[in-house]
Amino acid sequence: MSDCCTPVAFEPPPELAGPRSSGELRTIALIGPPNSGKSTLFNRFTGLRQKVANYPGVTVEQRMGRMAGIGRDDLVLIDLPGLYSLDPYSEDARVSINVLGGHMPGTPKPDAVLLVLDSLHLTRQLMLAAPVLALGLPTMVLLNMSDLMETRGGVVDPLLLAQELQAPVALISATKGSGLDAVQLFLNRHGNKAEQPKLMLPVLGNAMSTHRWAAQVSSRTGYRAPLSAKATQRVDSVLLHPVWGPLLFLVVVFSVFEVVFSIGQPLSDGLGNVLGRLGNFATGFLPYGWLRSLVLDGAWKGVTSVLVFLPQILLLFLFIGVLEDTGYLARAALIADRVMRSIGLNGKAFIPLLSAYACAVPAIMATRTIENKRDRLATILVTPFMTCSARLPVYMLLIAAFVPNIGFAGGLIGLKTIVMLSLYLIGFLAALGTARLLKSSILKSSETPFILELPQYRMPTLRSLGLRLMDRARVFLNQAGTVILCVTLALWVLAHLPVHGGTAPQLAESVIGRLGHFIEPVIAPLGFNWKIGIGLLSSVLAREVMVGTMGTLYGADPATQSLSLQTALHHDMSLGGAIALMVFFAFAMQCTSTIAVVRRETNSWKWPALQFAYMLALAYGAAFVTNWAVTAIWG
Amino acid sequence: MLSELEVGESGVLLALDLPPGVENHLMYMGFVPDARVKVLHKAPAGDPTVYSVDGIEIALRRETAKAIRVQLVQLPAQPATIVEEKLSVERAEELTEATR
User: Fold this and answer.
1) Which end of chain A has a smaller Cβ tally under 10 Å, C or N?
2) Residues of A in contact with B82 (CB under 8 A)
3) CA distance A205 to A169
């Protein structure tokens, strides 16, 4: 999830024009089968300095970083997609072959290869070693999770294996970071070493003969597979139980939201308090007048009204991260396969949908695991219906302002949680319904087989969770410091123009007020006033901008200036309008990052345009009905 | 048929009857002839089913499992995994002998 919304700072590889001594290393490729611990190792090697992009013309992710983690800033590490074989059957494999051969435009040919294999299942994993070693590049074989293998009674002789493969072999543990000094040695030694002697590998044709070769190598090198851990199977007999499985799934989902409220809300309130005081204190040094108003009421109130939601968003990402890192998401896909099949997709499409609860951008990129092109397109088109974390500030604000604090079931479940869950539910149902519609009309296709590897359960490492959260916090702060700051400043200026005789106009008479009143007839049937209209316009950039805009507009209005944003909204909106606004946000596609990523992944403007129009129409219709119904019932 | 095995039963894989792309993919995941496949769990809805092959767990739907021919193996329930590992080592040794 490190790749949402904005690319992480990264310097391009050094100029290749300079004099290059023979055999000097520049670029290293990292390759390995899925679930071999490759990503953990990549993070270990590169730390936070990584960049994610797409290879030109294809939808395969290109992940690069400098190997700062082992003190080799001068080396660029390319992370290739997780592969079972180099069979050019999948797009991932074709891209990997091209990168390794130096035929991928824009990507330098790797000077050396690090091949990661899971030592717990070495025999099968060696099937990838054959084609990789046959490439003839200097290669080091890293047997990952060696610590686990040894504690479970597995044995392998790395020296024998090195002889057999004609390549250095190291026992490592990516999670613990052990054995990496051997990698450093390998990289240093190859800094001034000429061509690697060519290997004598058997001519490898199909999967069968590769498997035979791998079995021979592993037996000749004295490999004994460790006893398979029974823990995973024991846990699964509960988590995949016909009754407990789905039930526990619901409990997990439910408790996530309860925690986001019960822990996140006080943290958020506290942060809001601190930020408010800080703003008052800091602007105390500014003279009274327009400058102070610009800084405090314009920029500070707008930006901080969004910033206070950082704790909740981080909590949500923490939960999704734990679900992903433990391996539970694959089980969720399995449980959901039946439901997904009834709408014409398979369980694999459920993984992106679940991670879209955090952010649609990485989720849409995660749809690449879906082999069938039409299934994948359908999944991309419905993913933005899933309630992403950017909707959270809007929901939180409106729920806090309009939903009373009533508890059910002895105070265990709050009405606020129920409203929040309903919003998540309608998003999910809209995604399912739309997928069904697409799969039975324009995206109809024959079924592709569902083949899913279930990884062993793992304890998520603090390091990997920490990296995710830091990355997310940075994206969020970045957004608040750039887009939201600019929007709120622009809004403040527009709210204070035109100046007549040295005094700013009434808010309703300002440029922004006139624009708002101009669009009001369109949104009035939904129960929205003109300020909400301006908010909706600005939220096309990103959903959370809505809250910043509200903060600035109500802050700029003398009538509501002294009130908290919640109270101001409560006085300014009807209940019907408020609920309609939440429903509108549940369905509308207000996110330029998502539009951009859909355009990139589908390689056309047609799909994002269709998606935007469809979601907007649905949002408008649903908000209209909601406002009408709520007003009719509770008037 | 692999789809006919019950949870807890094992089979030795005889052959796959799937489109070449899918077949290759499964073989690289360990579904090769002579491999031992064990049925671990069924998803709560009864389908897909989780199989253990070569130490990893793979979920397949019934229609895919129908195209995989296996022979049922009767095994004492207790030391299943140890026997399995031993078998695979012996098997690899046999193969080594054969190719020599």
Assistant:
1) C
2) 227
3) 25
